[in-house]
Known about the structure:
Helices cover 64% and strands 4% of the residues. It is mainly alpha-helical.
Amino acid sequence: MTNNSHDIIGGTRFSGGSARSFLSSMDVDHHIFEADILVDLAHVTMLAEEDIISKTDAKAIIDGLFSIYEAGFEHLPSAEDIHAAIETELVNKIGEAGGRMHTARSRNDEVSTCIRYQLRNDILSLINSVLSLQEVILSTAKNHTTTIIPGFTHLQNAQPTTLSHWLLSYYSSLERDIQRFFDVYNRINLSPLGSAAFAGTPFPINREKTATLLGFSGIIENTMDAVSSRDFLLESAASLCSLSITFSNISNDLIFYSNKNYVDIDDDYASTSSIMPQKKNPDTLELIRAASATTLATFSGTFATLKGLPRAYNRDLQSATPYIWNSTEKMLESANILSKIIETSIWNAELLLSSAGDGFSTATGVADTLTMAGIPFRKAHQIVAKSESNYEDIASNFNTIMGSPMDEFCTQDLIESALDPIKNVNMRDSLGGPSPRIVLDSISNAKIGLDSNFKLHTTYKNQIEQSKEELIREARAYLK
Ligand code: ARG
């Protein structure tokens, strides 16, 4: 970055002095470099179309903007922020005409538009990575419909289930996470551009035009709201928090399962100890688990920054933005790595099966079997609660509590079936349950949802791409 002492906006008076770097957002503004150039192009194209600036000036500005973009962020002069840096560089390059770019706008509407533009892309990238993770989860679930695993509540053996059922539980959580992102996306995808400082402008601007050129689905009408509001950051942060909890929970399960040797995490996603040579530790999963701290910091940081701000723009808002970039990056990385971990993990089906009945986890199935034979569930619960995990003991307690032999109600075969983890799971074929037959249904239902989410993602992505092409085409038309 070139090191001038002032930028075109502050001049020599407001050059920042010893607070210059403190005032500046340049250290994070690389996130919105491309967005800012596109926002500038859209604004200038509209200004020329509405005859607010001449076609000749528009040509010079657009030409300058393209060359600034090609030179890259690193070649911008030092400035209070990226908006000042680009404008300074533009005036350096093309002279006086560059000073017309900022007609009918302010950095306040500009920055909000840039953040929305970039965040929209980031949310779509994240959606795509989470959909890919769901795809991996589904294909793993398909391979493990009959892999019986111990299921836990309170981290105590509870009931046997299938590996597919466990995987699908996370598929469903991720599905809601994705819905939240799509929902938030629609509120991010609105243009504040043309609001100027907060109070509109006397120039005959066309806000719909810039919104369309930038691929926004509409505008934020009230100009004071448009520059002051960052609730889109807060709800994005909340959605990121929720996703990070899903990731954290999957990671924690995998860490626990690998502790039990139920699963072997690929070496690429593990680490070792500098002193204990035998160690293989699930460090990558621990970092994904810890990423929820980053998203919570984003949420609380954004919340605390926004709370109590007066209308309209305040520089506090500059501090809110970096939080979101931290979390979108962290969650994107986490999603991609988690996909790889699940794809490459090896499940120890034999050990899982032999552990599935631990702690008399088949007990509920036995109580259900007795209940199906006509015993009130509460009585069946009492009988099984007193029993060890074998037919004889259950029969003897039945006799004591019910005062009649168990085989008058229920065959030994039925009880033995309930005691067998595989048959115990097969019994549980209620909607959304773990039996292999039912998880297959759940997998096909999930596949339908996944395909439609991929389609929606592609539609949004294409809308952005097409509007970007159209914007560049319209801007380039001035260069002829
Ligand atoms: N860098 C600033 C931000 O991120 C841009 C807006 C500056 N506006 C102002 N009135 N000082 O919010």
